Amino acid sequence: MDLLIKKIKSYVQLSSNDEIIIRTLFHKKELKKGEYLLEEGNICRHVIFIETGLVRYYINQDGEEKTTYFNKENEFVCDNMSFLTQTPSNLNIRAIEDSTIWMISHTDIQQFYKEVTTGERFGRLAIEQVFVSAANQIISLYTDLPEVRYNKFVSNYSDVAQRIPQYYIASYVGIKPQSLSRIRKRISRNH
């Protein structure tokens, strides 16, 4: 819980009363590797903070899993589109490794916004960050060559890249695992 409080404080100031409220609204859960945080077709009912662990977002397209994003320790996890509209998700979010998470429900986040002094400001700043990240990712998908996307992946996920299976990385970059191997060899030769 202390890591979660620290993360929220990186966005906004919190009083000791705000911290008490937050501690009552978030609930801890342990996930096993392979366990779903969200399955396609279900409504995203929680915003999740990862204390320890790693998760992968993916869609099923033409019988193939396409990785769209990763979240790691000290990050929030949510299908914002499904959560905000309370409609079924097109995404799957699944633990890549055993994880400890803190969850807040859709109802409780409304209470967070009302009762925590800077709650609404926190929500706005967090969503702005998600929007910018999603926009950059979409632009990269359409404008960057696979090698550039791989380099961005390494830059953004350098601290966890060794913990992510290569076929998930290839899927995220938008190429086959064999192509990823060639890109990695080319990069290592150039360094």
Automatic annotation (TrEMBL):
<feature type="domain" description="Cyclic nucleotide-binding">
    <location>
        <begin position="4"/>
        <end position="112"/>
    </location>
</feature>
<dbReference type="InterPro" id="IPR018490">
    <property type="entry name" value="cNMP-bd_dom_sf"/>
</dbReference>
<protein>
    <submittedName>
        <fullName>cAMP-binding domain of CRP or a regulatory subunit of cAMP-dependent protein kinases</fullName>
    </submittedName>
</protein>
<dbReference type="InterPro" id="IPR014710">
    <property type="entry name" value="RmlC-like_jellyroll"/>
</dbReference>
<dbReference type="InterPro" id="IPR000595">
    <property type="entry name" value="cNMP-bd_dom"/>
</dbReference>
<keyword id="KW-0418">Kinase</keyword>
<dbReference type="Pfam" id="PF00027">
    <property type="entry name" value="cNMP_binding"/>
</dbReference>
<dbReference type="GO" id="GO:0016301">
    <property type="term" value="F:kinase activity"/>
</dbReference>
<keyword id="KW-0808">Transferase</keyword>
